[in-house]
What we know:
Layout: E1 22-23, E2 29-30, E3 41-45, H1 51-60, E4 66-70, H2 82-97, E5 103-106, H3 109-122, E6 127-128, H4 131-145, E7 149-154, H5 156-161, H6 163-171, E8 176-181, H7 185-190, H8 197-212, E9 218-221, H9 229-240, E10 246-248, H10 249-264, E11 276-280, H11 284-295, E12 302-304
Parallel strand pairs: 3-4, 3-5, 4-11, 5-6, 7-8, 7-9, 9-10, 11-12
Antiparallel strand pairs: 1-2
Helix pairs in contact: 1-10, 2-3, 4-6, 4-10, 8-9
Amino acid sequence: MSGAGAPEGAAGGASASSSEPSRSSSGELSGRGAPRRSAPLGVFDSGLGGLTVVRALGELLPAEDIVYLGDTARVPYGTRSAETVVRYARGCAALLLEHEVKALVIACNTVSAVAVELLRAELDLPVLGVVEPGAEAAVRAAEATGARRIGVLGTAGTVRSGAYPRAVGRLSTRFEVVAQPAPLLVPLVEEGWLEGDVPRLAVERYLAPLIEAEVGAIVLGCTHYPLLRPLIERAAEALAGRPIPVVDSAEATARQTEALLQERGLGQEPGHLGGLQVLVSDAPASFATSAERFLGYPVRELRQVDVVLG
């Protein structure tokens, strides 16, 4: 992508192929060929938040085409049962597979918590979530500080899932994870309240238990939260009296995507200028208006689609 991740035209592979995915009677996905390096990356979330992952991918991998799906007809996912989230995730994955994506990036903490392993088992292409990269980056940051605790700011659903304690525990038994629900932050971000007394007071309230627990790093466990990162960093330092590393899972996911593409030989040809195509399942006009806040540039190609659930 050109400049600071700004799109130049549409992403490649926008039409369905003869290897269109099929579903079993249980809704499982199957039936596509091996991924091509010239194919786009597929990224999905329930709404706007995943665009922070798209932005990070565009800045790190400007040659890659991206097809982004926001399932705005069903947002938010965080209040749904695990079974329902799995159905939604399969529907989103199936639609992106029609665009012949070479890798699937789940830019949603809720889906990453309950469906990433399932989709990996069902699909013959790389599948990445945001929880594992965020946990890995947090462990590295906390190890550098010598602390024994890692803090997580997340939605109620992500905190309830226990995804970050499990992910950190798989990496190291040294750390205790202190997870704090921060339900007001998503609506503040979507309304554009990124600075001022209202978001500052909310952030300080949510950070207080983490600072009291003396965490060595704080993971932004929701893809909306990177827009509040400057405010969160300032508030954490003011409360703790010292800087505390704040881990952006969107940036960590982009770095892991880069490593995976290199490992699999799936990186786009040098010199290619990547593009972005945005798909939404509802309310495209309002989505386009808000998307620029997340991306830092306007969306040039956006259309409404149907996400078919199995």
